[in-house]
Design brief:
Blueprint: H1 2-41, H2 50-67, H3 72-77, H4 83-111, H5 116-136, H6 154-158, H7 167-172, H8 182-194, H9 201-220
Helix pairs in contact: 1-5, 4-8, 4-9, 5-8, 8-9
Amino acid sequence: MTHVADTEQVHAAPLAAVRLRWWREVIYVAAFYGVYSWIRNQFGSAAVSASTALGHALDVIQIERWVGLFHEETLQEMVLGFHSYVVFWNIYYGTFHFVVTAFALIWMYRSFPKRYPLWRNTLAFTTGFALIGFASFPLMPPRLLPISYGFVDTLAEFGALWSFDSGAMHKISNQYAAMPSLHCAWALWCTLVMWPQVRSWWAKTLLVAYPIATVYCIMITANHYWL
Protein backbone atom coordinates (compact mmCIF):
# COMPACT_ATOMS: atom_id res chain seq x y z
CA MET A 1 0.00 0.00 0.00
CA THR A 2 2.85 2.34 0.86
CA HIS A 3 4.55 1.56 -2.45
CA VAL A 4 1.37 2.41 -4.38
CA ALA A 5 0.97 5.68 -2.52
CA ASP A 6 4.60 6.61 -3.20
CA THR A 7 4.15 5.83 -6.89
CA GLU A 8 1.07 8.02 -7.09
CA GLN A 9 2.97 10.86 -5.44
CA VAL A 10 5.84 10.51 -7.92
CA HIS A 11 3.44 10.79 -10.86
CA ALA A 12 1.40 13.55 -9.22
CA ALA A 13 4.41 15.79 -8.61
CA PRO A 14 5.33 16.38 -12.29
CA LEU A 15 1.66 16.90 -13.13
CA ALA A 16 1.34 19.53 -10.41
CA ALA A 17 4.50 21.22 -11.68
CA VAL A 18 3.10 21.37 -15.20
CA ARG A 19 -0.11 22.91 -13.93
CA LEU A 20 1.85 25.42 -11.90
CA ARG A 21 3.90 26.42 -14.93
CA TRP A 22 0.73 26.79 -17.00
CA TRP A 23 -0.87 29.15 -14.51
CA ARG A 24 2.40 30.97 -14.08
CA GLU A 25 2.58 31.64 -17.82
CA VAL A 26 -0.98 32.96 -17.83
CA ILE A 27 -0.13 35.31 -14.97
CA TYR A 28 3.10 36.45 -16.66
CA VAL A 29 1.42 37.19 -19.98
CA ALA A 30 -1.60 38.90 -18.41
CA ALA A 31 0.57 40.99 -16.09
CA PHE A 32 2.91 42.01 -18.90
CA TYR A 33 0.06 43.06 -21.17
CA GLY A 34 -1.61 44.93 -18.32
CA VAL A 35 1.55 46.92 -17.59
CA TYR A 36 2.16 47.51 -21.29
CA SER A 37 -1.41 48.79 -21.80
CA TRP A 38 -1.14 51.12 -18.82
CA ILE A 39 2.16 52.60 -20.03
CA ARG A 40 0.90 52.90 -23.62
CA ASN A 41 -2.20 54.75 -22.54
CA GLN A 42 -0.14 57.29 -20.59
CA PHE A 43 0.83 58.67 -23.99
CA GLY A 44 -2.70 58.53 -25.34
CA SER A 45 -5.06 61.14 -26.68
CA ALA A 46 -5.81 62.37 -23.17
CA ALA A 47 -2.15 63.21 -22.53
CA VAL A 48 -0.96 64.34 -25.97
CA SER A 49 -2.24 67.41 -27.77
CA ALA A 50 -4.08 66.81 -31.02
CA SER A 51 -1.90 69.39 -32.73
CA THR A 52 1.25 67.38 -31.93
CA ALA A 53 -0.26 64.15 -33.23
CA LEU A 54 -1.58 65.94 -36.32
CA GLY A 55 1.79 67.53 -36.99
CA HIS A 56 3.44 64.12 -36.96
CA ALA A 57 0.72 62.78 -39.27
CA LEU A 58 1.36 65.56 -41.76
CA ASP A 59 5.08 64.73 -41.67
CA VAL A 60 4.32 61.08 -42.46
CA ILE A 61 1.95 62.07 -45.27
CA GLN A 62 4.58 64.36 -46.75
CA ILE A 63 7.14 61.54 -46.79
CA GLU A 64 4.63 59.12 -48.29
CA ARG A 65 3.74 61.60 -51.01
CA TRP A 66 7.41 62.10 -51.75
CA VAL A 67 7.98 58.36 -52.26
CA GLY A 68 4.58 57.76 -53.90
CA LEU A 69 2.96 55.78 -51.10
CA PHE A 70 0.10 58.02 -50.03
CA HIS A 71 -2.80 56.01 -51.46
CA GLU A 72 -4.55 54.94 -48.25
CA GLU A 73 -7.62 57.09 -48.94
CA THR A 74 -8.04 55.62 -52.43
CA LEU A 75 -7.80 52.09 -51.05
CA GLN A 76 -10.40 52.81 -48.39
CA GLU A 77 -12.76 54.51 -50.83
CA MET A 78 -12.92 51.33 -52.89
CA VAL A 79 -14.72 49.43 -50.10
CA LEU A 80 -16.91 52.04 -48.42
CA GLY A 81 -19.93 51.03 -50.49
CA PHE A 82 -19.93 47.51 -48.99
CA HIS A 83 -21.29 47.83 -45.46
CA SER A 84 -21.00 44.23 -44.25
CA TYR A 85 -17.54 43.93 -45.76
CA VAL A 86 -16.31 46.96 -43.82
CA VAL A 87 -17.93 45.72 -40.60
CA PHE A 88 -16.08 42.42 -41.02
CA TRP A 89 -12.74 44.23 -41.24
CA ASN A 90 -13.64 46.37 -38.24
CA ILE A 91 -14.23 43.18 -36.26
CA TYR A 92 -11.03 41.69 -37.69
CA TYR A 93 -9.10 44.73 -36.50
CA GLY A 94 -10.47 44.48 -32.97
CA THR A 95 -10.20 40.73 -32.45
CA PHE A 96 -7.86 38.78 -34.72
CA HIS A 97 -4.58 40.13 -33.32
CA PHE A 98 -5.63 38.90 -29.86
CA VAL A 99 -7.17 35.58 -30.90
CA VAL A 100 -4.49 34.45 -33.36
CA THR A 101 -1.62 35.57 -31.14
CA ALA A 102 -3.11 33.81 -28.11
CA PHE A 103 -3.59 30.67 -30.21
CA ALA A 104 0.05 30.77 -31.34
CA LEU A 105 1.28 31.21 -27.78
CA ILE A 106 -0.83 28.36 -26.41
CA TRP A 107 0.05 26.10 -29.33
CA MET A 108 3.77 26.70 -28.87
CA TYR A 109 3.51 26.15 -25.12
CA ARG A 110 1.68 22.85 -25.48
CA SER A 111 3.37 21.43 -28.58
CA PHE A 112 6.88 22.92 -28.54
CA PRO A 113 7.66 23.82 -24.90
CA LYS A 114 11.41 24.04 -25.49
CA ARG A 115 10.96 26.71 -28.16
CA TYR A 116 8.17 28.52 -26.35
CA PRO A 117 10.30 30.74 -24.02
CA LEU A 118 12.27 32.23 -26.92
CA TRP A 119 9.16 33.14 -28.91
CA ARG A 120 7.31 34.39 -25.84
CA ASN A 121 10.23 36.66 -25.00
CA THR A 122 10.45 37.82 -28.62
CA LEU A 123 6.80 38.83 -28.52
CA ALA A 124 7.29 40.62 -25.21
CA PHE A 125 10.33 42.49 -26.53
CA THR A 126 8.52 43.51 -29.71
CA THR A 127 5.51 44.73 -27.75
CA GLY A 128 7.62 46.62 -25.24
CA PHE A 129 9.78 48.15 -27.97
CA ALA A 130 6.67 49.64 -29.57
CA LEU A 131 6.25 51.84 -26.50
CA ILE A 132 9.26 53.85 -27.65
CA GLY A 133 7.40 54.78 -30.83
CA PHE A 134 4.17 55.57 -29.01
CA ALA A 135 5.97 57.80 -26.51
CA SER A 136 8.35 59.59 -28.85
CA PHE A 137 6.13 59.91 -31.91
CA PRO A 138 2.41 60.14 -31.09
CA LEU A 139 0.72 59.89 -34.46
CA MET A 140 -2.83 60.74 -35.45
CA PRO A 141 -4.25 57.88 -37.54
CA PRO A 142 -5.86 58.63 -40.91
CA ARG A 143 -9.38 58.15 -39.52
CA LEU A 144 -8.92 61.13 -37.18
CA LEU A 145 -7.47 63.51 -39.76
CA PRO A 146 -9.46 66.60 -40.81
CA ILE A 147 -12.32 65.72 -43.15
CA SER A 148 -10.52 67.41 -46.04
CA TYR A 149 -8.21 64.38 -46.29
CA GLY A 150 -11.18 62.20 -47.22
CA PHE A 151 -10.78 59.41 -44.68
CA VAL A 152 -13.72 57.77 -42.92
CA ASP A 153 -13.63 56.45 -39.36
CA THR A 154 -15.13 53.09 -40.27
CA LEU A 155 -15.59 52.04 -36.65
CA ALA A 156 -17.70 55.11 -35.93
CA GLU A 157 -19.61 55.03 -39.22
CA PHE A 158 -20.13 51.30 -39.76
CA GLY A 159 -19.81 49.85 -36.26
CA ALA A 160 -18.34 46.62 -34.87
CA LEU A 161 -18.16 44.89 -31.50
CA TRP A 162 -16.75 47.94 -29.70
CA SER A 163 -16.10 51.63 -30.18
CA PHE A 164 -13.50 54.22 -29.23
CA ASP A 165 -16.38 56.57 -28.50
CA SER A 166 -17.60 54.55 -25.52
CA GLY A 167 -16.94 56.28 -22.21
CA ALA A 168 -14.20 54.14 -20.66
CA MET A 169 -12.55 53.25 -23.98
CA HIS A 170 -12.40 56.90 -25.02
CA LYS A 171 -10.67 57.86 -21.77
CA ILE A 172 -8.08 55.11 -21.49
CA SER A 173 -7.29 54.20 -25.10
CA ASN A 174 -4.31 55.60 -26.94
CA GLN A 175 -5.76 56.69 -30.24
CA TYR A 176 -2.44 58.23 -31.27
CA ALA A 177 -0.56 54.91 -31.15
CA ALA A 178 -0.43 54.67 -34.93
CA MET A 179 3.31 54.03 -35.24
CA PRO A 180 4.36 51.30 -35.11
CA SER A 181 1.43 48.99 -35.84
CA LEU A 182 1.44 46.15 -33.34
CA HIS A 183 -1.31 44.51 -35.36
CA CYS A 184 1.23 44.01 -38.15
CA ALA A 185 4.07 43.13 -35.79
CA TRP A 186 2.03 40.49 -34.01
CA ALA A 187 0.73 39.07 -37.30
CA LEU A 188 4.28 38.69 -38.60
CA TRP A 189 5.31 37.13 -35.29
CA CYS A 190 2.53 34.56 -35.60
CA THR A 191 3.69 33.64 -39.10
CA LEU A 192 7.33 33.29 -38.04
CA VAL A 193 6.38 31.22 -34.99
CA MET A 194 4.15 28.72 -36.76
CA TRP A 195 5.76 28.51 -40.20
CA PRO A 196 8.52 25.99 -39.28
CA GLN A 197 6.03 23.80 -37.43
CA VAL A 198 3.34 23.33 -40.11
CA ARG A 199 3.64 21.07 -43.15
CA SER A 200 0.44 21.38 -45.17
CA TRP A 201 0.34 23.83 -48.07
CA TRP A 202 -2.99 25.30 -46.97
CA ALA A 203 -1.66 26.08 -43.49
CA LYS A 204 1.41 27.78 -44.94
CA THR A 205 -0.84 29.72 -47.33
CA LEU A 206 -2.91 30.98 -44.39
CA LEU A 207 0.24 31.96 -42.52
CA VAL A 208 1.46 34.02 -45.47
CA ALA A 209 -1.97 35.55 -45.99
CA TYR A 210 -2.45 36.58 -42.37
CA PRO A 211 0.05 39.50 -42.18
CA ILE A 212 -0.94 40.59 -45.69
CA ALA A 213 -4.60 40.65 -44.66
CA THR A 214 -3.67 42.59 -41.54
CA VAL A 215 -1.89 45.28 -43.55
CA TYR A 216 -4.94 45.50 -45.80
CA CYS A 217 -7.19 45.77 -42.75
CA ILE A 218 -5.32 48.64 -41.10
CA MET A 219 -5.38 50.51 -44.42
CA ILE A 220 -9.09 50.27 -45.23
CA THR A 221 -10.10 50.98 -41.62
CA ALA A 222 -7.81 54.04 -41.67
CA ASN A 223 -6.05 53.09 -38.46
CA HIS A 224 -2.50 53.28 -39.81
CA TYR A 225 -0.38 54.54 -42.69
CA TRP A 226 1.83 52.55 -45.02
CA LEU A 227 4.84 53.77 -43.04
